Amino acid sequence: MAELTRFRCNGADREVEAGDRLLIDVLREELRLTGTKLGCGTGDCGACTVLLDGRPVNSCLVFAAECDGGEVRTAEGVSEGGAGRVLAEELAAAGAVQCGICTPGMLVMAAALVASRTGGAPDRAEIETALAGNLCRCTGYLPIMRAVTAAARRVGEGTP
Ligand code: FES
Ligand code: FES
Asked: Which one of 22, 36, 52, 61 has the lowest number of neighbouring Cβ atoms within 10 Å?
């Protein structure tokens, strides 16, 4: 019998026959978490970003077996509450979701940035640095910047 990989995903215990499959394939095809998008497949676009043990990773470059014993959070889990939910609202309000391919990865990465802040909203340079690995072909980035800034402000003020 094939060895099982066990990890928590969005708060639920999961058990998969990972084999040599990539994390993105297990998430999308087996766990039906299709919020995680496949863009380039080579680690260049950030569309597939998820959190692995709290750290953003490109799920197109991670073998699912590497998650054994770990904790994965996808855009679905991140947007359920806290900074992720606020970001989802602000991205929608700012018109920062057009084709939507980049949005889940942006949301995961930006939520990690906002949640890591202890004082004040991140400035433009910090947001640009945090999102440098997340490419968007549609928006020109300005609505995304506005949304992240607004979300950080709301979270910082404790009024999400
Ligand atoms: S699909 Fe993973 S970085 Fe582009
Ligand atoms: S909204 Fe289309 S790639 Fe960003």
From this structure: 61
DSSP strands (E only) in the chain: 5-9, 12-16, 49-52, 55-58, 71-73
Q: Is the pTM of the predicted complex or chain greater than 0.90?
A: yes
**Domains defined along the chain, listed by start:** 4-77 (3.10.20.30), 79-157 (1.10.150.120)
Q: Is the pLDDT of residue 105 over 90?
A: yes
Query: Quick one: which of 102, 78, 76, 94 has its CA closest to 148?
Result: 94
Q: Does ligand 1 come within 6 angstroms of the Cβ of 74? A: no
Q: What percent of the chain has pLDDT over 90?
A: 86
Residue 15 phi/psi, 5-degree rounding, is: -140, 120
- Name the β-bridge partners of 8: 13, 71
Of all protein residues, whose CA lies closest to atom 3 belonging to ligand 2?
136
